[in-house]
Recover the amino acids of this structure.
């Protein structure tokens, strides 16, 4: 299947690697004070000239305001601009994370279900996050807190290039693994990593570039396509699956752990129904946390396929 040139991942393949390369270079040669205006300038450029990105952020803020019945959240050009700047800040926070300037003591960990002892078990678990806040900060929980390796499952075709950049920047216990296709070799590798007690982390709010399996659920009051991948993986690997969200507040980051499912099981006759139910549960929790940090869901690509166009 030929990838749609307007698909989010087609843009991200070009933009994310450039930003990450700049950030890795900045880790080696610049400090945050010097890199900050450069990075904010780049993001400002994308805000000014990225019509599709502006439109997507506006649409998200509009749906969030309607769904939550909070008119104060309705989009304005200033609020959309603030969402872009929040993204630039999150990139700088990654720099601090890679540079060892963010410690586990600086992160508030909310774990009401006492999941952390389970995460330290002999066999690893799967954590599903989102492009909300800064999922990378969760590396501090893995590497500094629990002292395990976190494997981030991604759709990018350039995972190895990203890994080299991460190594250059100092992120030694963070590895990206391409999972665009769940072939036997990938499944074996993931199973072995779980058996070694490593964590598998994946974002549940981005559909794959190359025709991945998706399911349509309700998100912020509108139908939206979400990937089936996390729930299929958890079922095939027979591992527990938990949710992890990392939001930035006035006093720093807060990492929240939530139990999701001890196991995901299905019969051939009801697999689609089981997957859809788990996807909807995830979308509901994502909506909950989007409301806690309205400008920290960094989606700058068309997400909803509706005839309603709330953009300016």
């Amino acid at each position: 299947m030929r990838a749609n040139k307007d698909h989010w991942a087609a843009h991200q393949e070009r933009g994310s690697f450039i930003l990450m390369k700049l950030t890795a270079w900045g880790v080696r040669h610049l400090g945050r004070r010097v890199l900050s205006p450069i990075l904010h300038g780049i993001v400002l450029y994308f805000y000014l000239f990225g019509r599709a990105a502006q439109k997507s952020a506006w649409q998200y803020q509009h749906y969030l305001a309607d769904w939550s019945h909070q008119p104060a959240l309705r989009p304005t050009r200033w609020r959309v601009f603030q969402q872009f700047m929040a993204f630039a800040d999150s990139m700088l926070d990654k720099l601090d994370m890679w540079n060892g300037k963010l410690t586990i003591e600086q992160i508030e960990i909310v774990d009401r279900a006492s999941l952390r002892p389970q995460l330290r078990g002999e066999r690893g678990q799967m954590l599903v996050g989102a492009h909300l806040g800064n999922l990378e900060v969760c590396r501090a929980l893995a590497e500094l807190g629990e002292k395990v390796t976190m494997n981030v499952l991604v759709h990018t075709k350039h995972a190895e290039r990203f890994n080299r950049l991460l190594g250059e920047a100092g992120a030694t216990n963070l590895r990206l693994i391409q999972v665009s296709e769940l072939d036997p070799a990938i499944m074996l590798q993931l199973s072995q990593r779980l058996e070694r007690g490593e964590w598998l982390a994946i974002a549940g709010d981005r559909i794959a570039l190359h025709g991945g399996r998706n399911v349509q659920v309700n998100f912020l009051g509108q139908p939206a396509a979400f990937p089936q991948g996390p729930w299929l993986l958890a079922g095939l690997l027979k591992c527990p699956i938990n949710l992890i969200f990392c939001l930035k507040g006035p006093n720093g980051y807060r990492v929240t752990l939530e139990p999701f499912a001890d196991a995901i099981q299905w019969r051939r006759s009801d697999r689609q129904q089981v997957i859809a139910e788990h996807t909807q549960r995830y979308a509901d929790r994502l909506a909950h946390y989007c409301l806690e940090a309205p400008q920290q869901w960094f989606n700058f690509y068309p997400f909803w396929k509706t005839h309603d166009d709330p953009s300016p």
Q: What stands out?
A: Residues 8-292 form one domain. DSSP finds ten helices and nine strands in the chain. The first helix runs from residue 8 to 29.
